[in-house]
Design goal:
The chain is mainly alpha-helical and about 70 residues long. It is about 55% helix and about 0% strand. It is flat and about 35 Å long. The structure holds 2-acetamido-2-deoxy-beta-D-glucopyranose (NAG) (2 copies). One 2-acetamido-2-deoxy-beta-D-glucopyranose binds near residues 62, 63 and 64.
Length: about 70
């Protein structure tokens, strides 16, 4: 809810930090639920190992928030 509110109001919000905190919490609890953030984990792997071959259809591009994006969210 906080993330969506900040996106709609165009306020800065560190989404990576929130996801990372939940991910660390899940790893510490030993629940194995860190797998619930596969795209985030993939981004970390991509950052560390830049030349892993991958299917172009699986690559998510980064986009800036625009009025069109906000319209889609609301
Ligand atoms: C977001 O949080 C992470 C983890 O605390 C930090 O490394 C990063 O610099 C922060 N990004 C911004 C834009 O503040
Ligand atoms: C997002 O906007 C910033 C500032 O205008 C720009 O530097 C950056 O390249 C943009 N990123 C993308 C993915 O379009």
């Amino acid at each position: 809810m906080n993330i969506i509110t900040c996106l709609v109001l165009n306020r800065p919000y560190n989404v990576s930090k929130v996801i990372c905190e939940y991910l660390k919490e899940n790893v510490r609890s030993g629940s194995g639920k860190y797998i619930m953030y596969p795209r985030f984990i993939m981004m970390m792997i991509d950052d560390q190992f830049k030349d892993i071959p991958k299917d172009a259809k699986d690559v998510l591009g980064l986009r800036n928030m625009t009025s069109e994006t906000i319209t889609r969210l609301t």
